[in-house]
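About this split. The held-out portion is used to measure sequence recovery: a designer receives only the structure tokens and must propose an amino acid at every position. Recovery is the fraction of positions where the proposal matches the reference. Here is one held-out target exactly as it appears in the evaluation file.
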């Protein structure tokens, strides 16, 4: 085919198999390790990850490059995340990482360097126009990719999206990849398994405040409302115990008063509730009254929603927790038709 494709290689198994599959299919493949900003207080692993990616590129006999996107990652992902938390919202940094870094700066750079496509190890599929759920539904990552539009999708390939995760491991061994047994990465995009609150507390000052029940009675304390999200059930201290030994859930945040309101009943949006969205991206023309499936958390069960207008939806059934800053992603069957950020 001789089409030139730059593969974002993280050193992990999925992106490594992505490169191997594309080479086998006849593409002119170049591996690219994206170097991003990492905080000084974290143990730095990018050099080890890059070395893993280089070893894979050597086995596959493909060129290998390192692309420095520290500035783009710091400003587009980390600074955005901290600013959102300061406002009392709960952002999704992985969504921003895909938008600003992998399919923002990386895609733009690759196209300028003469690449016909970029590819990643995401579990998703595309026909060049639409974003489609991966074959392995349990690993599907379209929730984090809702910002992609048809203008970008025509330059993106997701080779492992058409196979199951266990098959990817088998292929890694078949291609004799040196990282075939490497564990999957978890946590914040690129940064890894750091607790979000640990990261935030290096940038946002702790401020002790009250925990109230639904009646307004003070029953405990916390270290700052900005560190909590709606639905969370850990991290605050209950000093006034009740006879019911049930967990408390955060159902509301009073930002000005630095107060958490908790309840034994977890928060959820009831039938008929309206959710307002901003920064929306739709890959099809949505009509008022149209009914689709949606989720507001990765891997959450799909709920049924109705389109009110292009920036608001109505919950018909299921659970859509109304957490400002989080993403609501809509599906029409197996096609991800976009989403928006909860206002």
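Reference sequence for scoring:
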């Amino acid at each position: 085919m001789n089409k030139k494709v730059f593969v974002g290689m993280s050193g992990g198994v999925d992106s490594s198999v992505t490169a191997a599959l594309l080479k086998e299919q006849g593409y002119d493949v170049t591996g690219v390790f994206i170097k991003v900003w990492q905080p000084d207080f974290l143990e730095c692993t990018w050099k080890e990850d890059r070395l893993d990616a280089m070893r894979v590129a050597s086995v596959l006999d493909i060129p290998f490059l390192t692309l420095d996107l520290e500035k783009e990652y710091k400003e587009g992902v980390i600074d955005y995340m901290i600013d959102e938390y300061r406002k009392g919202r709960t952002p999704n940094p992985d969504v921003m990482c895909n938008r600003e870094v992998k399919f923002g700066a990386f895609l733009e750079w690759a196209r300028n360097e003469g690449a016909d496509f970029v590819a990643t190890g995401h579990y998703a599929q595309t026909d060049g126009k639409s974003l489609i759920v991966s074959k392995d539904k349990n690993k599907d990552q379209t929730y984090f990719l809702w910002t992609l539009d048809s203008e970008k999708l025509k330059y993106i390939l997701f080779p492992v999206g058409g196979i199951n995760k266990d098959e990817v491991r088998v292929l890694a061994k078949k291609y004799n990849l040196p990282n075939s047994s490497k564990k999957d990465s978890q946590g914040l995009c690129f940064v890894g398994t750091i607790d979000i609150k640990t990261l935030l507390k290096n940038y946002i000052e702790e401020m002790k405040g009250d925990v109230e029940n639904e009646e307004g009675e003070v029953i405990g304390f916390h270290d700052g409302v900005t560190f909590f999200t709606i639905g969370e059930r850990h991290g605050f201290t209950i000093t006034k115990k009740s006879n019911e030994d049930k967990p408390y859930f955060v159902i509301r945040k009073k930002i000005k008063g630095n107060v958490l309101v908790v309840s034994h009943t977890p928060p959820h949006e009831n039938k008929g509730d309206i959710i307002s969205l901003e920064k929306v991206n739709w890959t099809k023309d949505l009509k008022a009254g149209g009914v689709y499936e949606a989720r507001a958390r990765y891997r959450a069960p799909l709920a049924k929603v109705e389109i009110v207008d292009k920036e608001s939806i109505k919950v018909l059934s299921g659970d859509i927790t109304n957490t400002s800053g989080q993403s609501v992603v809509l599906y029409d069957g197996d096609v991800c038709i976009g989403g928006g950020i909860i206002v």
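Annotator remark: The helical segments are 13-24, 46-60, 70-86, 93-112, 150-153, 165-174, 196-200.
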